[in-house]
Amino acid sequence: MSLFCADRLSYTVKGKPLVLEASFALEPGTLTMLVGPNGAGKTTLLRLALGLLKPDSGTATLEGSDVSKLAPVQRARKVAYLPQQRPLIWPQPVRDIVALGRFAFGAAPGKLSREDEAATARAIATCNLEGFEERAADTLSGGELSRVHLARALAAETALLVTDEPVAALDPRYQHEVLRIFSDLAREGKALLTVVHDLGLAARYADRLLWMKDGRIVAEGTPRETMTSDRLRTVFDIKARIDATDAEAISLNILGPA
Ligand SMILES: Nc1ncnc2c1ncn2[C@@H]1O[C@H](COP(=O)(O)OP(=O)(O)OP(=O)(O)O)[C@@H](O)[C@H]1O
Asked: What stretch or stretches form a coiled coil here (predicted)?
């Protein structure tokens, strides 16, 4: 059985279908990336998959349970979600923000168990935030703050991590660093689903790609299997050259609009 399974999820707002019959599965040990143009329905699909939106039809199951029937705390113990918009109400110190990732395990500000403290410290170290622990969030750069939000999601140490454009605010070095962290987490056995816009990063780091256009998943498979110049034209309306560099890897050269 897959860790997560979406079966024909559909969602319509005011007569406009935003997601149509979307089915996919997520396996432990796999970094899956969801790609598609602006407005394709990626964020809406993530929210349906997490049970944050109720589908008109279809089901999403996590470890065999219907996500719409999980209480928020139960869900938060199974899946961590890093959304695109990450509001911070108070400029708390970094350590306290990361520790919020432990709330589903009973942690509250100033009330962390030894395990909560250890998981918080591991997430801080994984995201290269050692030395920032006491810094107030409003003194951080955009890239630093992105890593704090990621650390908060990682602190939950869930079997599934879902992230929406986690590297959008990061410079190239940290983009690679974060995606390497994701690859490492997949190698450790976690399942990851992440939206990315940079197709070069997707080609390089994804184990599997879900291609989305106009609310539908139009292709699924490894980058090698699915990233073709035809697909880039039909899904993104761009002209691109794809070269196979070895048995696994491909290199992508985007030439411009189709
Ligand atoms: N509640 C809503 N009411 C009306 N339209 C909505 C609603 N939520 C989303 N949409 C529309 O649905 C479409 C898909 O939105 P979504 O945010 O899922 O796309 P996306 O693929 O994540 O886009 P992006 O890459 O730009 O973040 C967009 O046209 C958006 O305006």
From this structure: none
3-class SS at 250?
strand
The residue range of the domain holding 94 is 86-158
Number of separate domains in the chain:
1
> Count of alpha carbons within 13 Å of 3, Cβ hemisphere only?
21
> Digits of tens for pLDDT over the chain (258 positions)?
799 999 999 999 999 999 999 999 999 999 999 999 999 999 999 999 999 999 999 999 999 999 999 999 999 999 999 998 777 667 789 999 999 999 888 777 678 889 999 999 999 999 999 999 999 988 998 888 889 999 999 999 999 999 999 998 788 988 998 999 999 999 999 999 999 999 999 999 999 999 999 999 999 999 999 999 999 999 999 999 988 777 677 888 888 998
Within-domain flag for 21: no
Which ligand 1 atom is at minimum distance from the Cα of 36? 21
Three-class secondary structure of residue 77 per DSSP: helix
**Strand positions, DSSP E, 37-146:** 57-62, 65-66, 79-82
Let me know if residue 96 belongs to a domain. yes
Q: Is residue 129 part of a domain?
A: yes
* 132 domain-assigned: yes
For residue 212, the ligand 1 atom closest to its alpha carbon is 21
How far is Cα of residue 116 from the mean position of the Cα atoms in its chain?
A: 23
pTM of the model: 0.93
18 Cα: distance to centroid of ligand 1 (angstroms): 7
| Complex ipTM value | 0.97
